Sequence to fold (121 residues):
Amino acid sequence: MDVLKKVPVREQDAKVRAANFEEVCLGYDKEEAMCEASRCINCKNAQCVKGCPVAINIPGFIEKVKEGDIAAAYQIISESSAVCVRRRASARANVSAASRANRYPSASLSGMLPTGPGKTA
Fold:
């Protein structure tokens, strides 16, 4: 297989997608995914791993897709820290929002809303 030749990703036809809000990219079926995964050249110092902000074992994932073992590929993706990173970022955002509301009560929306019948802000 020519590693430079990409497997094109299936997409909705332009006329179809002009009339809906569904996902344009339809993705790969199993055979297409296996073919695309076979393009991996198994770099000694894989730049894909170095560039991944959530430390996914990309070579392991690609290898399992190449073998057609989609369940094992999913397991490898699931072992990544992606969920934990999102939780930490979300928790940090919640704490930040709460601390802003405590420091600047006028910025808190709840303090600006009427609380009873006939009340106005």
